[in-house]
Design brief:
The chain is an alpha/beta fold. It has nine helices and twelve strands. Helix content is 35%, strand content 20%.
Amino acid sequence: MRLGLDYGGTKIEGVVLGPDGTERARARVPTPRGDYDGGIRAIRGLLEQLETAAGGRIETVGIGVPGSVDRGTGVVTKGNSTWLHGRDLRGDLAAALDRPVRIANDANCFALSEAVDGAGEGAEVVFGVILGSGVGGGIVVHGRILEGVNAVAGEWGHVPLPTPADDERPGPLCSCGVPGHTEAWLSGRSFASDYARRRDMPVEDAPPAQEIVALAAAGNPAAEETLRRYEDRLGRALAMIVNILDPDVIVLGGGMSNVRRLYDTVPGLIRPHVFGDKFNTRLAPNRHGDSSGVRGAAWL
């Protein structure tokens, strides 16, 4: 059996998969924020709990973490779980758990999950997209994560929004401090902030993204206009991915992936920006929902 772990800012979730991918056990514990050694102890206790629940020994462990992971050393950098930065999480966990540990960025784990037995199953090239509180991505080619020599492959959230209009320059500040990045336009928070700016209301008073989507569905003009701008920006940003990577399928995850109309409207907004005469890339919702990242960690 294999254990997948999702090391989040508020919780550490684990799932045990059998050889055929069936789920044998699942549990979660609160993340000891700011406490690196406490996190190691929490994961060791979680493994023991899940082995008992699954009724057998877990042979391998995979863990998804926010931030970049050096593929040689396993050291974590960047990401909002700052207590992990510069630490050999892979090596320390392997010693504490006494078994092999693999580690990857959490967006890469999402992409791997959807490529193995999710919406991208059977595809040669899968681009997994996270549209949540931030914007991330992962690339899987022939069933393997493409990490890149700098461990930043798939980080499309931190490139400028393509072909910006005059009123999109320089753009709002990204979480990394640079204006106009894709994340600054396409995260759930950015979508809500865009609605607030067009309504001349303080950004901090913006309703949640899902409420704005519901207002659009009910015919609210300001909400509908905001959602259409979001779709146009998403189309431009994904066209850049198609022109560079040309994936078989783009799988959406994160809270904004639940906006069902995106799968009808956005492909037509990607097409005009794609080089050449063909556009056969599928845009698909994820198959495993919030469980996809932790399942992908198990498949590492």
